[in-house]
Amino acid sequence: TEVTEKLEEVVMIWIKQIRQVLVENEQMRREADDIGPSAELEHWKTRMSSFNSLLDEIKSSRVKKIITILQAARSKTLKHWKELDGNVTIAANEAKDNVRYLYTLDKFFGPLAKASPVTMMEHVPSLMNTVCMIYCTSPYYNTSERLTSLLLKITNQMINTCKTYLCEG
Fold first, then answer.
1. For 14-55, how does the pLDDT look when each residue is reduced to its tens digit (9 = 90+)?
2. Membrane-spanning residues where (predicted)?
3. Residue 169 has pLDDT above 70, yes or no
4. Distance CA 112, CA 99 (A)
5. Local structure of residue 169 (DSSP, 8 states)
6. Which string of DSSP letters, residue by residue, matches 59-76?
């Protein structure tokens, strides 16, 4: 029982740390007003990397051994652990899925940032069709908050490109 108690203390520390990561993950992001759409892709790539690392740690042999011992001891802390494990898996899947979908927009980011306003407009219909496809098919990116944030960043990029064009002309 002494070993079980020590292991439960360790797992409770992990639970607290993982909860903190999940809470931070859900908080609103503070971004510059003129940030472009490539920042959205970078955000999700960073999030995917951190959650994949967390999943790797959760699935490590060291953690699995401790969980197995606590299962044998019928520890009550495992209920919380399993819930958090599931939440981390969901967050990792969400980030991976969002990166996959946002990569389909990556080919538009260059022309959106470097083209003249006239050339840029040639890409807008295809860009909007791709955004629509993401909204209609993504299980995670199909909320008005996510889509509004993405469209705002696309608009920011278009405005910045036009400003640069006007200043150079």
1. 999 999 998 888 877 777 778 889 999 999 999 999 999 999
2. none
3. no
4. 19
5. -
6. TSHHHHHHHHHHHHTT-T
